[in-house]
Amino acid sequence: MSELLAGRRVLLVSINYAPEHTGIAPYSTRIAEHLRMCGADVDVLAGMPHYPGWRVHDDYRGRWRMVEDRGGVRVHRRRGYVPSRQTALRRAAYEVSFLAHGSLRPPAGRPDLVLSQMPALAGGVIGGRSARHHGVPHVVVVQDLMGAAAAQSGIRGGGRVASLAAGVEARILNSATLVGVVHESFVDHVTAAGVPGSRVRVVPNWTHATPPSGDRRAVRARLGWREEERVVLHSGNMGLKQGLEVLLDTARLSGRDTPRIRVVLMGDGNRRAHLARLAEELPNVDLLPPATDAEFSDVLAAADVLAVTQRSSVLDMSLPSKLTSYFTSGRPVVASVATAGGTAEEVRRSGAGIVVSPEDPEALYGAIRALSRDPARSAALGARGPAYVRERLSPQAGLGRISAMLSEALHG
Predict the structure, then answer these.
(1) What is the number of alpha carbons within 13 Å of residue 169 lying toward its C-beta?
(2) d(CA 139, CA 13)
(3) What pLDDT score does 380 carry?
(4) What is the rounded distance in angstroms from the CA atom of residue 36 to the CA atom of residue 188?
(5) Is the pLDDT of residue 347 over 60?
(6) Integer Cα distance of 230 and 296 in angstroms
(7) Maximum mean pLDDT: which of 178-192, 296-310, 386-400
(8) What mean pLDDT comes out for the span 168-196?
(9) Within 13 Å of residue 209, how many CA atoms lie on the same side as its CB?
(10) Domains (range + CATH), the chain
(11) How far apart are alpha carbons 150 and 146 in whole angstroms?
(12) Helices (H) and strands (E) in the chain, counts
C-alpha cells in the first residue's frame, strides 16, 4: 500500500509534533517521516512545541510563525495561546487561537490528502476545511475523544462544554472520508456520533521506545535507587485525568514497609507543582524531570513496577500512550484505572500487568506489595510485554495500518 502514496502531497495537521517527545507528537512525527520515506511530499501544520509542560519550549519563544525542515518534512509552526493551567475556558482559548492562526496562514499549495490528528478539535476543523476547499479526502485519526474528555477528565467547567465539544467533534468525524481510532473501545463512540461503521478503521498506536540496553544496576545507582528498594515508576504527563494523587497516598501507606517502596513520578505537566507540594512530607516519593529519548527505556527497565493511573471518571476518552513504552521495557504494569475502560482492556489483553480499582490506594498498594513478594510472577508479567509488542505494537505494523488507510482514502 505504501507505494500508492509515492508522488502524492499530504498535509498533516497536528498541534503536537517533534521535538515534543511524549503524548501524540511521536506518532505524528513518525507518520510524517514514514510518508516521506514512501515518496510522498509532506507538509505539517503544527503549534509551537509546548507539551507536556504546557509552556513553549525555549528555542521557540517569541516566534509567531515559522517553517522548519525536520527529517525531510516541512513543518509550518503557528503560535497559539498555551495555558499553564487547564480549565474548559482556557482549553477553548487554546483551540480557538490555533484555529484562527492556522486558518489564516495555512501551508500553500494543493494537497492530495489531508490527515488530521485529534484530540485537537482545531486541527480537525482546519483539516476538514482544507480538504473541502481542495476537493480531496480527509482522514482523521482519533487519539483521544474530546467530548468524552471534557466530561470525564475533571477539568474545571468541562461538564458544561462537553456537549458542545462532542457536537464539533461529531461534525468533524462525519465529514471525514475515513476515521481511524487507536483502540476498539472508541468505535462505539464514533459510530454513536453518526459515522457509519464502514468508514471506521482501528489503527492502534505502536511503541516508539527502543528496548532497554543499559546496565540496570548502573542506571539505578545513577538515579539513587537502592537495590533493596522496590521502585514504582509513573512516567508521562502529570495532568488532571491521571489522578496521580493515588500514588502519593500509596506511598504514604507503604512508608514503614521493608523492603522500602519508593514512588517515582517522572515527567511534566500542569499538576506537577501541585503534586510536588503534596509530596514534600513523603520521604519515599521522588519527582524527576522527563528522561531523554536516549535514556528513557533504560529508566523504565530500572524500575520494579510501572504504574498507569486514571481518575475513576475516565472510561473511554483516551488510551495512555505510555503503555506501548511500558510494555517494551519488560517490567510489570499495575493499572489503577476504570475496570471497564479501554486502558484496562489493553492491559488485560497484553497479559503484562494487573488492573485494580481507580483512586483506591489500598488496592494499588496491595497489588504492588504482592508483586514485590512474588518475583516469579513479576518476571512473568514483565516478559509478556515485549512479546505483546512484537505481536501487535511494532512500528512496522502500526505504520502499515496508517499507510493502508490513507491509500484506501486516496484510491478506494
Answers:
(1) 26
(2) 10
(3) 98
(4) 33
(5) yes
(6) 19
(7) 296-310
(8) 93
(9) 28
(10) 2-206+394-411 (3.40.50.2000), 216-391 (3.40.50.2000)
(11) 6
(12) 15, 14
